[in-house]
Design goal:
Blueprint: H1 2-5, H2 12-32, H3 41-47, H4 50-63, H5 66-78, H6 88-115, H7 122-126, H8 128-139, H9 152-173, H10 175-202, H11 221-232, H12 241-263, H13 276-292, H14 300-331, H15 336-358, H16 362-368
Helix pairs in contact: 2-4, 2-5, 2-13, 2-14, 2-15, 4-12, 5-11, 6-8, 6-9, 11-13, 12-13, 14-15
């Protein structure tokens, strides 16, 4: 904590954004274990009041903002760097990419062994030999047996490999070129699929398919990194504070309304990171945090602690939540929102506490949590 507080290079509003992001991600995993999200949404919608569905959608849409915020933080911090300076690229891979890879592999191993304790694991259902084989496959990113939330790590490892290229491109070609690329990616990966989801809910067979593919351009997640970079450079300064706040509220409300409306149909569509509503909400929220983050100085100690522990919480909370969820399954029917708050509070709070305590040991701090000294 003293290192964090006395580090003049830290950007406090980034710490606020990181804390909010990890809270959002833990909410996502609690929500998907408490409500019908991926299937059975129509039955749940019909079985409860409209207020229930609105509150459920509000929690869920908030929970989808965590990954965009983390990606925008990465863009804000990493893209402005000068990678043409001698040794800069090597330093990135040595000080950032390799430690992330190392920590990811360690956690893949920990999670695999943890999941092996449960009755449906490979070890228990297919034997020791298959279990050992699957363990090494998991460490090698092949046919992995892990928590679904770990999809983020291979994705961010891939994005990091291209950071110097994108940063140099921004410096040499300017923002306008990347505005065009980002706009095309948003159109192909967000706008058209969103229209198709709307058409599917309306029951029409009409669809919009483009022969252009965002997969041949770059990962759609790069859009979030670019937007984080542009926000930090003040590209939205022309908007008033009221306009930014209205942007957060309107985009969030519209996305919630869309999700509730979709609940009333048979498509089981759930809003994802590739939805335009999530992109706009995250964009305005990130800008709002840039402007107003300093107003949370009264919470500096918990904010800095949460920011420092965020990476560890990301890995540890899902283990706690999975175990707790197994216990709740044997308890009986636990009301939806009660289940959500139990899973969220105990896993989020418990992992924060455990990371804070165990980070006193160098091994945990360096290899499991990647925390600053």
């Amino acid at each position: 904590m003293s290192t964090l507080q006395n580090n003049p290079q830290r950007v406090y509003w980034i710490d606020v954004a990181r804390g909010l992001a990890i809270l959002s991600i833990t909410c996502c995993h609690a929500a998907t274990r408490s409500f019908a999200i991926y299937e059975g949404t129509l039955l749940e919608f019909q079985s409860h009041s409209l207020v229930f569905s609105i509150l459920k959608a509000c929690l869920y849409i908030f929970s989808r903002l965590g990954v965009p915020l983390f990606l925008m933080i990465t863009g804000a911090l990493m893209l402005p760097r000068d990678y043409e300076r001698k040794g800069a690229v090597e330093k990135l891979y040595q000080n950032n990419w390799l430690p992330i890879l190392r920590t990811t592999v360690i956690w893949f191993g920990i999670m695999y062994l943890y999941l092996s304790l449960f009755h449906d694991s490979v070890l228990r259902t297919q034997g020791v030999g298959k279990g050992i084989l699957k363990f090494f496959e998991t460490l090698l990113f092949v046919n992995q047996q892990s928590f679904a939330s770990m999809w983020y790590m291979p994705m961010i490892l891939s994005l990091y490999l291209l950071l110097p290229i994108m940063a140099v491109g921004l410096q040499h070609f300017g923002d306008k070129y990347f505005y065009a690329l980002s706009g095309l990616a948003v159109l192909l990966a967000m706008v058209l699929p969103n229209f198709n989801a709307l058409f599917a809910h309306l029951g029409t067979e009409f669809r919009l398919y483009s022969s252009l593919s965002v997969g041949n351009l770059f990962s759609v997640f790069w859009v979030y990194l670019f937007f984080g970079y542009w926000v930090r450079r003040g590209k939205l300064d022309r908007l008033s504070d009221g306009g930014v706040l209205a942007g957060v509220f309107l985009s969030f409300a519209a996305t919630v309304a869309f999700q509730v409306w979709v609940y009333s149909g048979p498509t089981d569509y759930d809003v994802q990171y590739q939805d335009i509503g999530i992109l706009l909400t995250a964009l305005f929220l990130f800008e709002l945090l840039r402007r107003k983050g300093e107003e949370f100085r009264g919470l500096e100690k918990p904010v800095l602690s949460l920011s420092a522990c965020a990476f560890g919480i990301f890995f540890l909370h899902i283990c706690l939540m999975h175990g707790l969820n197994q216990v709740l399954k044997h308890v009986g029917d636990v009301p939806y929102f009660s289940r959500f708050f139990l899973l969220e509070v105990l896993s989020f709070g418990g992992s924060w506490l455990l990371v804070s305590l165990t980070s006193r040991w160098k091994f945990f701090r360096k290899y499991l949590y990647m925390m600053e000294k």
